[in-house]
């Protein structure tokens, strides 16, 4: 986290632009009938690796630009094929998790989103949250999603810099995450704590100033910054697990 914030502070605009461009492209892609949402899920590994490539470039005094999302597909036919396999596998696994969770909770999660969008009464929302099927579906949704993320965490980078096959990269990523599970638990809890503390502080500060409506306005840029820094920090998690593979600079 510290290294991610430090690197982001040196290049805030280019890194933020990368995330904005990716989200805009993903939004347009999701509008494609039938396959749009699936393509958006498949693009998630590209998002992480693109930021890792951009972070590597920044450490080596190079440029940072959205075109680095496509760098992984220009490294040769075997690596491009492996990256496409990873993207498809991630998209399919995520769809499977969402389908299983939807089956278990009977669509309760979707109803919750609709109720919140329509500003339903709190007692109706509380009743839905207390439903056992909803809680089981929530556990499956986020538990299996976290497991899938752990399996795919380093895989695109291992294909790009380690020239591994898709299957070998998935195995290596899973093994690295397991061996460093304590560090990654601290890493994720630290991010959750940072976001929670910021949210509480912002809400309290604007409440004391009598400007509660401003809290939601601050949440948007803060969310963009935290999300961007998170993706910038991914390279440092990779380096701490596998060494500075693929880097020309010892600064990482």
Describe the structure.
It contains twelve helices and no strands. The chain is an all-alpha fold and 252 residues long. It is globular and about 55 Å long.
Assess the beta-strand content as a share of residues. under 5%
Order of helices and strands: HHHHHHHHHHHH
First CA to last CA: what distance? 13 Å
The portion of residues assigned to helices is: over 70%
Overall mean confidence score, pLDDT: 87
Radius of gyration: 20 Å
Derived structural class = mainly alpha
Count of strand segments: 0
Strand count, sense and barrel status of the largest sheet are: none
The number of helical elements comes to 12
Low-pLDDT regions: 246-252
Summarize the structure.
By secondary structure, the protein is mainly α.
List the main descriptive attributes of the protein structure presented here.
0% strand, 252 residues, mainly alpha, 79% helix, globular, disordered C terminus
Task: Indicate the topology.
Layout: H1 2-10, H2 12-30, H3 36-42, H4 44-59, H5 77-105, H6 108-117, H7 122-129, H8 132-152, H9 155-162, H10 166-179, H11 181-208, H12 213-242
